[in-house]
Amino acid sequence: MEFESFSQAESILLWSAFAVAVVMGAIVNKTNFCTMGAVSDVVNMGDYGRMRAWLLAMGVAMLGVTLLEFNGMISADDSFPPYRGSSLTWGENIIGGILFGIGMTLASGCGNKTLIRIGGGNIKSIVVFLVIAVIAYFMVNPFPGSDKTLFSELFFGWTRGQSGGSPLTISLNTKQDLGSLLASGEGVATARFVIGSALSLLIMYFVFKSADFRASLDNILGGLVVGLCIIAVWWVSSNVKVNLDDEIYSLRSVAQQWDFLVEDSSQVKPADTRPLSPQSYTFINPMGQTVGLAANGFSGKYMTFGIMAVLGVIFGSFLWAIFSKGFRIEWFANKKDFVNHFIGAILMGFGGVLALGCTIGQGVTGISTLALGSFFSFVSIVFGSAITMKTQFYMMVYEEEASFAKAVITSLVDFKLLPSAMRKLDPV
Asked: For residue 368, is it within any domain?
């Protein structure tokens, strides 16, 4: 898709992100596609239906990106965020993923679910959104009158190292996707194709071998549509180009060379060029971007793909809620409910940025690029959520008899991460 001006091309990118997100928001609301719910169903009931839906989204997105990239129709190498970056921040992926998993459990849903709930009338999710947004913004943007961010002050020194590096970060000589790690040169493209195809087909085999899942239209629809939406915006963001005097430029390259390439003073130069890179849906950092937009008077130069995606999901969810007559105003049940959601939002803000994404951003979009860090983040999010649910369960069952430490240790024993001799509470 080639356009004669930067503003035309950028407008198509932004409105495409919004339009596809509207579809995603409506379908996610309709089908109750929920990543936290998926973990909860497995941990509490042994039901893998919604987990298979999440895996289906992952498999569809992975297969789509694999096929399109092999045929030169998209590019995921220089994406935003940089999933395939040569710096494998595995410590941040794991720590951030665990924090995010704990947070989404306390706050009753991940970043995407928060947006879905807002569209459905859940006022407490607006509070969760605002807390996540402020934390996410200051994780990557300096405090007023300072050059320090939350990330630089709380994490950088020990996760990446000031000078000598950190064992929690590995500097690779190649990109971190599985294809690049197992092949080199021209063989990378083939390796990505083979690995991506094989993994996605294995995932789909696991998903569809369940008769119960095959009988669940909502689970199939939710996973399929989420995966297709991820593919759709990967394609759009990779193919929106600007034709200037018969020279083809990407949006980001035009913005980076603005003074040399753009003569029309009526066009607005974006404040940041990174959000013009090829990308797909992720929701924590874009929530932070909404703070930047508001803080700068809603200037068009601060409007991004991610912000449009956030607005699209909310609007799509709202449309379905109105259509299905499911729109309901909901507030915090009590003080404990507020505290849980508030703490959960803080943890999601920190964890989502640290892990480079959320359950959609890393669990579907990132994994579609075969990035090793995305797999670390996905597993860590599931673990953080699962251990939190188990701990909450033991504390609820045993009430005053169970301390937090006893509940955590017993939960780790249940997951066979500690020897059974360390069990503090009888199994329930």
From this structure: yes
**How many structural domains is the chain composed of?**
1
Check residue 266 and give its pLDDT: 84
Task: Report the percentage of the chain scoring pLDDT > 70.
Answer: 99
Number of neighbours of residue 354 by Cβ within 10 angstroms: 27
Residue 403 lies in domain? 2-422
428 in a domain, yes or no? no
When pLDDT is cut at 50, 70 and 90, the band that residue 324 belongs to is very high
pTM of the predicted structure, to 2 decimals: 0.95
- pLDDT > 90: percent of the chain: 89
Integer Cα distance of 380 and 407 in angstroms: 19
User: Quick check: 351 and 100 in contact, CB under 8 A?
Assistant: yes
- Rounded to whole angstroms, the Cα distance separating 45 from 40 reads 8
pLDDT score, position 426:
86
Residue 404 lies in a domain: yes
- Residue 417, in any domain of the structure: yes
Contact status, residue 241 vs residue 278, Cβ threshold 8 Å? no
